[in-house]
Amino acid sequence: MAIEVFNRYEKKYLVRAEIYEDVQRVLSKYMELDEYNKKHPYYTICNIYYDTMNNELIRKSISKPKYKEKLRLRGYGIPSLEDKVYLEIKKKVNGLVNKRRTRLVLKEAYNYLFTSIMPEYKEYMNKQVLNEIDYFLKLYNLVPRIYIAYDRRAFFGIDNRDLRITFDTNIRTRRTDLRLELGDHGEKLLDDNVYLMEIKAEKTIPVWVSKMLSEFKIYRTSFSKYGTEYKKTIVQKISEGERVECLKQFYIPQLYHQRYTFATPQLQI
Fold it and tell me: What is the pLDDT of residues 223-246, one digit of tens each?
């Protein structure tokens, strides 16, 4: 069963394409590829982030508070309405990341997020996490705000399974078609010659990792996919001559919820 509760530190780095293969060779001495990556160079992760109409969660997040939280719906590849996905709460307190998630069928996840009516419990769900998400939904009036997808290559420590290092590339985002089953298209967030590397560990990182970072002059950065896109959109709006306080198209998006009914294949809006 996939792990549904994480407590770990996550540090981010931007790695240039010219040193990417060299870094991979170093990792291969101490780590092994994710099972899927042993047969495929990358696997695709797609997410829908939920926020308030005035972007309260992401605006708080980029202000770098000691505590921040977010809610997202995550799938692997492009799921169908009948596939299982993850509904996740991600919190960060003084640098420690806590992620709690439960599996749901995609169509029941949509219905839950639209109605805030908790789905009937099934064996593949995490009941405790559902209760926490339910509180989160009652605390905020959330709507789907952004779709983010990327292709990932992941490593696990051979002698330390708590150590994980991932590389994300082809990060793309969109603010329309905010549904996982509608494909993973979107606008590129980073140049093709840059990879986002994340080092994830429950405790301190090994000495060999520190030496590798020093050898290749890889420096820690503060990078949020959602936060970077949000700030990029604000800058674009300003460059187009719009005043930030009047960005109605941005703060009140032209989107709507769709609720699936189980009796018929039609959609109710």
Answer: 999 999 999 988 887 777 766 554
